[in-house]
Amino acid sequence: MIEGASALLASTMAVRGHRERNVTGRCWVRSGLPVLAAGAGAAAGTLFVLMSRGRVHMDLGWGRSFFPLGPIEVTIAAPRDLVFDVIQGAYAERAPAEVRRHIRVLERAGDLVVAEHRTPLRFLDAITVETVRFERPSRVEFVLLRGPVPEVRETFQLREDAGRTTLTYEGTLGADLWVLGRWYGDRVVRPAWDAVVAASLEQVRAQAEAKARSRGRKASKPGPPRP
pTM of the entire structure? Predict the structure, then answer.
């Protein structure tokens, strides 16, 4: 009887120990998964910030998807040469201080510059590095070198009609990693990018029209009386 009771007790303890190990394992998995998920989320958030700040540029080329940027069209009450001057002036050596807060030219070679663009967003400043090529009087090209996505190509097209200029923006954005890239490029980056460009074009319009009005006032002033 004693031996039977001992065997029964040993068997019961073994089953209890097995159950406790299973419960402990399930508890570890349940407690560990949120930690792993939080860690992965923090890592993804850090990577996004670094990419947005232009500190990391990931050009994997795996599962790349492309998305259209624009088109955005702005009609400006100013001649084309003046509008072009406003755009190019933002990259001039003597650009206004307010402009230099957002655009810093890193290299310059004729009609081509490499520039860092700083864009204030809600929680941080997004920083991109791009080449900018000026083809007077009708075209400006931008190519991304470093930023939140591996590839962006953009153009400004300027057309003049009866002293007014139509400025059209179009481009293409590329993002890697298949489904994740399609979500990130289409839902996160593209709307923000288009919004920033639209605001920039409105600034160009306002500056160009102000310069055109000033030019018109100067031209309408009567000259000195002839002797």
Answer: 0.77
